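Sorry to interrupt, but I need a hand with the structure work. Could you write out one complete protein record for me, on any chain you like? Just paste the record in under my message, thanks.

. . .
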Amino acid sequence: MRKVNSVSGHVFIQRSFFLVIIGLFLVASPGFAMAKDVIGVVDVLRTFQSTDLGKSIQAHLSRFQKKRGDEVQGERKQLQEEQKQIEQQVGVISKDALKAKELAFQQKVQIYQKKLQKIQTQVASENAVEIRKFLDALSHASEALGKKYGFQIILSQHPIRIPMGPYPPPFQSSRIIYMNPKADLTQSVIQYINKHNSPGGTGE
């Protein structure tokens, strides 16, 4: 009998999967950078992990994926148990009876797979909506601080990786291979987002 590996599928959000490269951010930090600096760098992943808004989004996405995953967890266990029972009946019942059980089981698996795909789509959509909130806040902070301190270009370092579907995107290394510590604007961006963006108001 053919194994049904898809039965063990699950929907989990890892903190790092969906590649977001922020190329140009106009941000500056009075503590680390001077107005004469025209290029600055923001550690986008650390900003996402350190700001109140980013933490709130991560917590919400974790709750969201767990709630959706719980919707099919019981059904997955039932299918796994039914598969074991069918395997135990090989050689015990007639071939026709076994074939009928396998066919009925495969139909149940197909229904389960459709439910799982629907949940994966829901999770991916929620990821996109929530991450967009953070990227908008990051863009606004970058523009405001860049204009204030006279920076022309801010490059991203350590982009966010968030899953947008059942498979993670291919890895891409950081665009920054050297950075002067004086150009690190991350702390100023964290402070700006914390001050100007409330972490509340995120629904289930």
Notes: The chain has four helices and four strands.
